[in-house]
Write a structure and sequence with these properties.
single chain, alpha+beta, three-stranded mixed beta sheet, two-stranded antiparallel sheet, 9 helices, 40% helix, globular, disordered C terminus, binds zinc ion
Length: 230
């Protein structure tokens, strides 16, 4: 989104989580290859040096509570283009829509969607591992079942970022099962299903497509039917 504003080209964009509880800290990050010193850090950022600042790691912006436009009470969620077509007026209540971040980008941008500046530092988009495990297992992210798998993966493979971004998919499957491994593989390829946040409602990013979820539910239902025969 930032890459669409040419005036930001001279800025080094970094990514830091603003989460407020210990378990959610450090979930967005900057990948650096430097001597661990303040001078090196300062210089790498100042020079916007892609040999030293290798990448940033971040959540999908669509999860934000004000990404798209809309009215939560009217159940109206619009992309900026849809809002503009409606003159930014809610078709349900007739009042002005709450405009989101993407709308602001659309207003300020001097480049088309998807533009990639030459000197841009790449980024990884991630989904929190506990949420991904919870989705795969059909459990809440703060449950014991999820935290057991989470701890086992992170302890064996060297931390959440390693699990999400770099560990062998086969190794993840061996520790946590094929479903979670497939979810991580899909996330790495950006194969996610997104429901954008709007007007104070959090967006959701799912690594399991709606089709895959329906298929899984059918299989689960079949398993239940089979069990109930005995
Ligand atoms: Zn409305």
């Amino acid at each position: 989104m930032n890459w669409r504003l040419s005036e930001l080209d001279r800025i080094t964009l970094i990514s830091n989580s603003d989460a407020h509880s210990p378990a959610r800290m450090g979930r967005e990050a900057n990948v650096l290859d430097i001597e661990p010193s303040f001078y090196e850090l300062k210089d790498a950022l100042k020079q916007k040096d892609s040999k030293r600042l290798l990448a940033t790691i971040e959540f999908f912006p669509q999860e934000g509570k004000y990404h798209y436009d809309g009215h939560r009470n009217c159940n109206v969620r619009f992309s900026p283009k849809e809002s503009i077509a409606q003159k930014n007026i809610c078709p349900v209540c007739g009042r002005p829509l709450t405009l989101g971040v993407l709308h602001r980008i659309e207003k300020l941008a001097d480049r088309p969607e998807g533009y990639h500046p030459d000197n841009a530092i790449p980024y990884y988009s991630i989904v929190p591992l506990a949420e991904l495990i919870g989705e795969a297992k059909g459990m809440g992210r703060d449950t014991m079942g999820v935290s057991r798998v989470y701890e086992s993966l992170c302890n064996s493979l060297g931390g959440e970022f390693n699990v999400l971004l770099w560990a062998e998919i086969g190794e993840i499957a061996g520790l946590a099962g094929r479903e979670i491994a497939d979810g991580i593989a899909r996330m790495r390829k950006g194969q996610v299903t997104v429901d954008e946040g709007y007007d104070g409602v959090f967006g959701t990013v799912s690594v399991f497509s709606k089709d895959a979820q329906a298929e899984k539910k059918n299989e689960d239902d079949k398993d239940h039917e089979q069990l109930s025969l005995f």
